Amino acid sequence: MADCSRCFALCCVLLPYRRDAGFGADKPGGVPCHHLAADDRCGIHADLRERGWAGCAVFDCFGAGQHVSQVTYGGTSWREHDDLGEMAAVLSVVRRVHEMLAHLGEVGRRSPDPASAGLRDRLLALRDATPVELLTADIDELNEQAGDLFAAASARIRGVAAPDLARADLAGQDLRRRDLRDAALRGALLIGADLRGLDLGAADLLGADLRGADLRGASMAEALFLTGPQLEAARGDATTTIPAGLRRPRVWVQAG
């Protein structure tokens, strides 16, 4: 989980963003956000959405920021580092590693297997590697291996009879009469879809696009591979159940 207090605001400096992607302005990578204070804190963090910065509220580095800040670069801030391009690339790799580790942790809790444990060890070793080692690692091969392990675990947990809607275009659809319990929704487009009150059971939501999806009253406590950014991008309320370990979006609490 991200701990911004131990990070040098790397995402606010190293990463580019665009107004049309939910940010209040356009910014190239390597340039500090104009809301960033001298102590590396966000000057508008309390009301990001209200001021047009929903993209910041949705973004999650999965803990990569503090690891890169404190471990990879040993406490050296972007202010003292002479190659921000390298630091940005390292942050991107470590973020992918951390996201894979988070999903592997879920596999370990719900349907462990030796292969996932072996990949976890490889990722942990890479996470603590030098910048050069991180940037020369075959991250795509690791990601492909992780994807196969996630798919196998998903099939074991959900069963063979569950609906398969992987990568389906369900954007804007009213799905309240559909049986989506334990469904394969990996990579599905659910932008603006209506899932109010649905019991999703152990539905596989890996990579599903939930931007604007209406999850009010939905039962998602057992959903697979659901992430904080997906929840932040969706619409929910106090009656939406979510997996243990995920934080209920502040905007949902206010809506409830």
Q: Overview of this structure, please?
A:
The protein has helices at 10-14, 54-58, 64-72, 84-110, 114-127, 131-136, 139-158, 228-233, 250-255. The chain is mainly α and 256 residues long. Helix 3 (64-72) crosses helix 4, helix 4 (84-110) packs parallel to helix 7 and helix 5 runs antiparallel to helix 7 (139-158). The mean pLDDT is 94. Helix content is 38%, strand content 0%.
Strands, count: 0
Low-confidence stretches: none
Class by alpha and beta content: mainly alpha
Our Rg estimate from Cα atoms comes to 19 Å
Briefly, what is this?
It is built from 9 helices and no strands. With 256 residues, the protein is an all-alpha fold.
Tag the structure with descriptive keywords:
256 residues, mainly alpha, globular, 5peptide_repeat
List the topology elements.
Layout: H1 10-14, H2 54-58, H3 64-72, H4 84-110, H5 114-127, H6 131-136, H7 139-158, H8 228-233, H9 250-255
Helix pairs in contact: 3-4, 4-5, 4-7, 5-7
